[in-house]
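Q: Structure tokens for this one, please.
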Amino acid sequence: MSAVQPALPLGFAPSLAADSYVVSEANRHAAAWLAAPQDWPMPRTLLVGPSGAGKTHLSRLFAGTVWDDADRADAEALFHAWNAATTDRPLLMTASRRPLDWGHGLPDLASRLAATPQVRIGDPDDALITAVLAKQFADRGIRVGEDVLAFLCLRIERSFAAAADVVDRLDTAALASQRAVTVPLAREVLEGQLSLAV
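A: Here is the predicted structure, written as tokens:
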């Protein structure tokens, strides 16, 4: 029996191309809103969604100024960016939390954010979680069958973070054991490291 080899940490760059952004009911409104900034009531919008929801991908397709992780930004700097936004150069801010939960302590910014349109990426449905899994495997250069995607979709938590976690675990396990990512490998990883849905 061959020895299990330790996996080497390999870097990968996720695709941020327009044709690799998957739209479903969870993000359809946000994608349509960001595609038409000329229709916004003001040249500013806040995109809110959980970690791993595709906010970075979607914001990279936006033609304007982007301020990622606005909920962790310097309040004064964000205040000036908000004021500087124009119709020709609209401002898109992304965040994981609503402005009421930011706690930055700058009343002038708080009042502006309260008036700023917000769009949200919701929790993924089955179609989106399957597409997210497929994209994350593809970003890592891993070929998986539809049977693997269906198996995982039925068993992992419905969240973007869970999808990223299971892909990372399977990538590590496949490298370490020098096996392809198949349903048997996925079953072993889930049974050993994640709770199975019943």
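A few notes: The chain has eight helices and four strands. The longest helix spans residues 160-177.
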